[in-house]
Specification:
By secondary structure, this protein is of the alpha+beta class. The protein contains 14 helices and 16 strands. The protein has an eight-stranded mixed β-sheet.
Length: about 400
């Protein structure tokens, strides 16, 4: 027997119902906020992620499914969704249009890392990207939208926020941080030592408990913001307070991607073990420019579907559609004429084998049909069908034309 690859799994049965419910719920809410669907390729040039996510990030340096294709091109399976959407945005020259653009997407992403609960090598995300709006009101609106998605799915969460500053306040902060880290570098892990020289901000995101204890007294970017970034962050917290959305300011929250600036946020859950982040995002005002587009402010997020699939509160299943069955062999072909007509308006399940009454009733119950429609000897002769509503328990015999 051939098994699925490690870290990759099939999506079937009850899980697939949960997956579709998540996508349908998130899509409906995203549309209310003015987002339209976009789909980008799973396979992209490796350079796209090196320039956007960052060479020093774990995603690029350790986790990408990267290879050379038959044409000699350096390509990889997308590890995240934002970079591809931005590439598409620039490729379509949407950065040259005055109107604001909003996109939602969903699909598989790939990272080669140690599989664990809620973290697979092939995983799925639902995400949104908003282009052309620099106001912190858009950051707040994005956070509100995610809150509504989780509320609709019946998932509890805690919100963590931070500000990563901008090109004005980040350089002097980095200098202070490097000075602090250099003094304790011998006590930090190997990854942190590497990042001191490549991307010191990422040290704050280290999951090593020893490193985190050493970072308690590190310089805090939130205390070194420029006037504009400080004003925006205070405005965001005021908006969240007024909306009744509780949050915690996490000064070490930097996200795992190099393109973020200003607002960064994560939604976390204590119900999925150590990998507690169930959604995350923030502002990335320089990424369009990094990928050769015109300077365009942008903000977005992604929800990890595997992270939340077991947490979803599914609605109670309701009976729907029609179950068609024949009680004599000669009546089986009659079922298909009915099915073809009724499938234009509802779900129809056809039983191909002639069976007894009790067997058909069990079959209708298994597929959660609302109506059971049977043709026996008398119905075949009279051109009628027997119909029972399995919710109201009403039953009747009607002509084929009337049904």
């Amino acid at each position: 027997m051939i098994n699925p690859l490690r870290g990759m799994k099939d999506l079937t049965f009850e899980e697939s119902e949960r997956f579709n419910f998540i996508i349908d719920t998130a899509t409906a809410i995203a549309k209310r906020y003015g987002y339209g669907y976009i789909e980008t390729p799973i396979l992209e040039e490796t350079a796209l992620f090196k320039r956007s996510v960052g060479d020093s990030s774990d995603i690029v340096s350790k986790e990408m499914y990267q290879f050379e294709d038959k044409g000699g091109n350096d390509v990889c399976m997308r590890p995240e969704g934002t970079a591809g959407v931005v590439r598409s945005f620039v490729h379509a020259k949407l950065d040259r249009q005055p109107m604001k653009q909003k996109f939602y997407y969903y699909g598989p992403m790939f990272r080669y890392e140690r599989p664990q609960k809620g973290r697979l090598r092939e995983f799925h995300q639902f995400g949104c990207e908003s282009f052309g709006e620099a106001s912190v009101y858009e950051d707040f609106t994005i956070i509100t939208m995610i809150s509504q998605i989780f509320e609709a799915l019946g998932i509890g969460f805690d919100l963590q926020i931070n500000s990563l500053g901008c090109t004005t306040c980040m350089p002097p902060y980095k200098k202070n941080l490097v000075g602090f880290l250099t003094e304790i570098k011998e006590e930090l892990c190997a990854d942190c030592n590497r990042r001191i020289d490549t991307n010191p901000i990422r040290v704050l995101d280290c999951k090593n408990e020893t490193c985190q204890s050493l970072l308690v007294n590190s310089p805090k970017l939130i205390e070194n913001l420029c006037e504009e970034c400080d004003s925006d962050f205070k405005k965001l917290t005021t908006l969240l307070d007024n909306a009744g959305i509780s949050y915690e300011v996490d000064t070490n929250l930097v996200r795992g991607l190099d393109y973020y600036n200003k607002t960064a946020f994560e939604f976390v859950s204590n119900d999925i073990g150590s990998q507690s982040a169930i959604a995350g995002g923030g502002r990335y005002d320089k990424l369009v420019e990094f990928l050769d587009g015109k300077p365009t402010p942008a903000v977005g997020f992604a929800i990890g579907i595997e992270r939340i699939i077991e947490l979803v509160k599914m609605p109670e299943s309701t009976r729907e559609g029609i179950y068609l069955g024949a009680m004599v062999e000669d009546a089986v072909e009659k079922l298909f004429t009915i099915a073809t007509t009724k499938r234009r308006e509802t779900k129809v399940t056809v039983e191909y084998n002639a069976k007894g009454f009790k067997s058909h009733m069990k079959g209708a119950d298994k597929v959660h049909a609302r109506y059971v429609v049977l043709i026996g000897e008398d119905e075949l002769v009279n051109g009628t069908v027997w119909v029972k509503d399995l919710e109201s328990k009403e039953e009747k015999t009607v002509t084929l034309e009337a049904f």
